[in-house]
């Protein structure tokens, strides 16, 4: 998947390669976790010859992943659509091409975009997701999902800052 023979486009800059592929990628590794992909990634983009022998791949990948809500741990389906723009230089032209730290290197007229796109997917995964804006999360004492209603735990004395505030207010009343 995502492999292109770019011999023609290197020879003729007027040629543009249209990329339109659905990837067979059931999950993506993210740190120590493996994030399931529930809607397969669809890659759409163009490969252009931008500077004689420098190719540029511009596009977007759309997919849906499944991640636990950061507060209540319920699975959430998260649609992602990271966009990207990346330059690729043929190894054979490295000596002549101007040093471009950002560019990736390919050889033998074969441009393999699979690793690049997988990495873009990884970069597009959010650190935190919420099942809904006002998710109440889990009770810190008993683990009950507070979205389903209160559990009856008394959490008031948990926060010492409230105690301070309360005594301040009492002193104020006395004045
Ligand atoms: Zn939640
Ligand atoms: Zn509780």
Explained architecture:
It is built from 3 helices and 9 strands. With 175 residues, it is of the alpha+beta class. It has 2 domains: 3-123, no CATH class; 137-175, no CATH class. Strands 2, 3, 4, 5, 6, 7 and 8 form a 7-stranded mixed beta sheet that branches. Strand 5 (55-68) and strand 6 (75-80) form a beta hairpin. The mean pLDDT is 90. Bound molecules: zinc ion (2 copies). The site of one zinc ion has 6 residues, from loops.
Average predicted confidence as pLDDT: 90
Q: Main sheet, how many strands, which sense, barrel?
A: 7 strands, mixed
- N/C terminus separation: 76 Å
The counted number of beta strands is 9
Using only C-alpha atoms, the radius of gyration works out to: 26 Å
Write the layout of secondary structure elements.
Blueprint: E1 3-5, H1 7-11, E2 17-22, E3 27-30, E4 33-49, E5 55-68, E6 75-80, E7 83-90, E8 104-106, E9 110-112, H2 114-123, H3 160-174
Parallel strand pairs: 7-8
Antiparallel strand pairs: 1-9, 2-4, 3-4, 4-5, 5-6, 5-7
Bound molecules: zinc ion (ZN) (2 copies).
One zinc ion (ZN) binds at residues 69, 71-72, 74, 130-131, 135.
Structure in a nutshell:
The protein has 175 residues and is α+β, with helices and mostly antiparallel strands. The mean pLDDT is 90. The longest helix has 15 residues, at 160-174.
């Amino acid at each position: 998947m995502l492999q292109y023979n770019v011999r023609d486009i290197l020879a003729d800059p007027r040629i543009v390669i249209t990329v339109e592929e659905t990837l067979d990628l059931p999950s993506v590794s993210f740190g120590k976790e493996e994030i399931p992909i529930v809607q397969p990634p669809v890659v759409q983009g163009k490969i252009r010859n931008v500077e004689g022998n420098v190719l540029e791949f511009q596009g977007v990948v759309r997919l849906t992943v499944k991640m636990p809500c950061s507060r209540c741990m319920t699975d959430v389906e998260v649609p992602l659509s990271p966009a990207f723009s990346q330059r690729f230089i043929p190894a054979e032209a490295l000596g002549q091409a101007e040093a471009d730290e950002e560019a990736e290197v390919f050889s033998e007229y074969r441009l393999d975009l699979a690793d690049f796109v997988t990495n873009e997917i990884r970069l597009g995964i959010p650190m935190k997701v919420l099942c809904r804006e006002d998710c109440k999360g889990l009770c810190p004492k008993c683990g009950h999902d507070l979205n389903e209603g209160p559990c009856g735990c008394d959490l008031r004395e948990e926060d010492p800052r409230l105690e301070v505030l309360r005594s301040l207010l009492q002193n104020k009343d006395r004045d």
